[in-house]
Recover the amino acids of this structure.
């Protein structure tokens, strides 16, 4: 039972092997847990079952190349200054990557005021406040060019940032910056002028499908990629380390989610524990609607709901004759 020693040589050896200096020779957590279940008392089985079904929230998976680039920019920023823009669709993991970047910056002895700052307003108010000043809101004189006033304010703000980062390296990380906003304009200004020495700037933004997503050498614009098959398998193993068989669903999960991490998390929440493998074997695995989508669907007319349900089952792209000859009977 709980609190009683387990007298099993094999279990003791496997547990000891988990600290082997060669990672390749260490047993997985799932292997040791399986032995633990075999040797544990009957009254402990329910608790162990709950533990096995418990998922683990993890950091970004499958973005090693991007994280390496962030690490390189952090090192460069101490001497030259550096900035990155991360763009991607909703749920692709931008915020998770930004949080990882903040942790990396702290380990490199950066000041990271505010951590990852939500920036949906896109205003410069917080940046002025960080520098101990209020945002300049006075009206320009009629004879002055408003654009010239803006660039003067940007220059003043950049100079103050340079003085701040000369004393100690600083990482400013803004999440969900609107593409057309004063904050976005300011980072474009810094990209052309040159980021101050000691400043690392990272901002995330939604991917504009009408805008070319080619890398920009000046601003280091990067599109966050969707997860591939191997990365999804790794994510399933990381999220459910005591259920390694769940990784067998990787191909179907990729097919349903397109490699979007937020949708994968939603899928795992809908199929906890052994339910994922069961649904996979029965071919009943499906991506549930988000709370927002569910509320919107429920508000539709019943006939429109039926149409939406039929559209959800269509193969993509739908056969042309379906549209020309009428809907299938079922």
């Amino acid at each position: 039972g709980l609190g009683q020693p387990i007298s099993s040589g094999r279990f003791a050896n496997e547990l000891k092997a988990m600290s082997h200096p060669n990672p390749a020779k260490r047993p997985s957590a799932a292997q040791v847990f399986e032995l633990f279940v075999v040797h544990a008392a009957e009254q402990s089985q329910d608790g162990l079952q709950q533990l096995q079904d418990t998922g683990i929230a993890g950091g970004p998976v499958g973005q090693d190349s991007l994280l390496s680039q962030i690490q390189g920019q952090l090192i460069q920023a101490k001497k030259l200054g550096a900035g990155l823009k991360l763009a991607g669709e909703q749920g692709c993991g931008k915020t998770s990557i930004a949080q990882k970047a903040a942790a990396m910056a702290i380990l490199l002895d950066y000041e990271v005021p505010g951590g990852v700052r939500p920036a949906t307003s896109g205003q410069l108010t917080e940046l002025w406040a960080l520098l101990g000043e209020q945002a300049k809101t006075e009206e320009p004189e009629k004879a002055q060019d408003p654009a010239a006033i803006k660039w003067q304010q940007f220059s003043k703000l950049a100079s103050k940032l340079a003085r701040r980062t000369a004393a100690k390296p600083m990482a400013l990380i803004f999440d969900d910056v609107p593409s057309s906003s004063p904050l976005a304009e300011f980072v474009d200004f810094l990209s052309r002028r040159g980021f101050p020495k000691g400043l690392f700037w990272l901002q995330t933004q939604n991917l504009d499908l009408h805008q070319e997503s080619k890398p920009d050498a000046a601003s280091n614009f990067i599109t966050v990629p969707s997860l591939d098959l191997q990365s999804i398998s790794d994510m399933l193993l990381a999220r459910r380390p005591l259920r390694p068989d769940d990784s067998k669903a990787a191909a179907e999960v990729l097919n349903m989610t397109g490699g979007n991490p937020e949708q994968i998390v939603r899928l795992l929440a809908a199929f906890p524990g052994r339910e994922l493998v069961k649904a996979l074997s029965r071919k009943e695995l499906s991506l549930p609607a988000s709370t927002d989508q569910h509320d919107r669907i429920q508000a539709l007319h019943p006939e429109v709901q039926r149409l939406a349900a039929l559209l959800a089952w269509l193969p993509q792209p739908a056969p042309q004759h379906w549209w020309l000859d009428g809907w299938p009977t079922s």
User: Anything to note?
Assistant: The first helix runs from residue 9 to 17. The beta strands are 82-88, 116-118, 170-175, 199-206, 221-223. The CA atoms of residues 58 and 200 lie 25 Å apart.
